[in-house]
Amino acid sequence: MNLFPLALNVAGRRCVVVGGGPVGERKVRALLEAGANIVVVAPTLTAAGLAHDVQAGRVCHLAAPFAPEHLDDAFLVIAATDQPDVNAQVAQAARARGVLVNLAAPSENKDEDDFGDFVTMATVRRGDLLVAVTTGGAGPALAARLKRELDERFGPEWTDFVTLLGSLRAEAKRTLPDEAARTAALRRLAASDAVRERIARGDARGAHQLARELLKAAG
Known about the structure:
By secondary structure, the chain is of the alpha/beta class. It has 2 domains: 14-120, NAD(P)-binding Rossmann-like Domain (Rossmann fold, 3-Layer(aba) Sandwich), CATH 3.40.50; 157-216. The chain has 8 helices and 7 strands, in the order βαβαββαβββααααα. A 5-stranded parallel β-sheet has the order 3-2-1-4-5, with helices on both faces. A two-stranded antiparallel sheet has the order 6-7. 26% of the residues are buried.
């Protein structure tokens, strides 16, 4: 598949996951991180984590077999059952309503439509930084391996580093009216291992000072 990569804003939007097992739990976890309003449709919840999320009020559970009306007002739906016929019903109902659909547990008889309108990605989050990788469903084990490598490559210091870059970008817009100079300064900041390394050492003040010196040097 020639996929078009994008990142969806699902914050506060109704996202439906059909299936209460381990696959559904993984999809719910990713949607929770993105701030979605999640509804899980499943007669029973076999994943303990899902049951805990429902009890904690983070997820709404509709304890019933899937019905097309469950997708009313939905932004997207993920079919995550181990029953190909149910997943096919979800896909049909979603397309009839113009709802984005992903088949997280496709049948063995694969064709180009097996994964629906989009595929979910193996992701590493560091605050506003989101690094994602997909093999288009062809190699989940490879995607998982790459995720582990990315998780090691991008340590926790990247959270504060990206936040710092965001704040200084706003500052640069105010203090550097020349667009070329501003672009060069921000690129220099983004490429600065020294700033990020100071954050990693716990020297937030030093990191901010060095970052502002780099920004000022372009003025």
